[in-house]
């Protein structure tokens, strides 16, 4: 993005919104796709020493459900807060408690700022560590591997029935129950 005269003076602000054509990203073990890139809605402010970019990003993200291995579709919104300094600071910037580096980028010599890193890191911040196709995803059957969201293979009921049977067999009424069955 090229900075023009609208941001030439301290205090100048300019709203920018647009679209970033990213196709995907990786976070930990997870691969995500961005079928329609990501959208941003920012305000750029000339803060004297640099340009402050604040606002929101949103994206439709496709990943793989951790439970059923089916496609998981996430709508992610994230917050952008990035500082682009006009030049490297003359003195060391004082570090706040617990910070080990100052977070800023630089305005390019051609008066441009590259927002893509800031937009992507806003997306990464809001991407969940556990990816689910839906909150109550039933996952895969441990016996036959069927996707329990789509089919009821019956194994869960069988396991439950077997447990019930074991409980009955262990109870002092087991003998009575067998009598009933014989009738
Ligand atoms: Zn799932
Ligand atoms: Zn099954």
Fold and architecture overview:
The chain has 183 residues and is an alpha+beta fold. The chain folds into two domains: 122 residues, no CATH class; 44 residues, no CATH class. It contains three helices and seven strands, in the order βββββββααα. The chain starts with 12 loop residues before the first strand and ends with a helix. Bound molecules: zinc ion (ZN) (2 copies). One zinc ion binds next to loops.
List keywords for this structure.
binds zinc ion; single chain; alpha+beta; 3 helices; 31% strand; 5-stranded mixed beta sheet; elongated; 20% helix; two-stranded antiparallel ribbon; 183 residues; 2 domains
Q: Which strand order spans the largest sheet, edge to edge or round the barrel?
A: 1-4-5-6-7
Query: Hetero groups bound?
Result: zinc ion
Element pattern in H and E: EEEEEEEHHH
The percent range for helix content is 10-25%
Uncertain segments: none
Count every helix, treating DSSP H or I runs of 4 or more residues as helices: 3
Shape type: elongated
Q: How many separate domains?
A: 2
Distance between the termini: 84 Å
Helix/strand-derived category reads alpha+beta
Rg calculated over all Cα atoms: 28 Å
Average residue pLDDT? 89
Number of strands: 7
Instruction: Tell me what portion of residues adopts beta-strand conformation.
Output: 25-35%
Describe the largest sheet. 5 strands, mixed
């Amino acid at each position: 993005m090229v900075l023009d005269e609208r941001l030439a003076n301290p205090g100048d602000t300019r709203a920018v919104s647009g679209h970033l054509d990213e196709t995907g990203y990786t976070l930990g073990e997870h691969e995500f796709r961005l079928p329609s890139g990501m959208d941003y809605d920012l305000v750029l402010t000339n803060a004297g020493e640099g340009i402050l970019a604040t606002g929101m990003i949103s994206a439709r993200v496709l990943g793989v459900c951790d439970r059923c291995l089916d496609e998981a579709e996430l709508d992610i919104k994230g917050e952008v807060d990035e500082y682009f300094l006009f030049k490297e600071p003359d003195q060391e910037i004082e570090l706040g408690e617990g910070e080990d580096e100052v977070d800023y980028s630089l305005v390019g010599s051609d008066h441009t700022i590259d927002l893509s890193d800031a937009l992507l890191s806003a997306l990464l911040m809001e991407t969940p560590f556990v990816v689910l196709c839906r909150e109550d995803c039933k996952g895969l059957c441990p016996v036959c591997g069927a996707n329990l969201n789509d089919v009821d293979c019956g194994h869960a009921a069988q396991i439950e029935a077997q447990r019930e049977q074991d409980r009955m067999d262990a109870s002092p009424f087991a003998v009575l129950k067998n009598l009933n069955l014989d009738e």
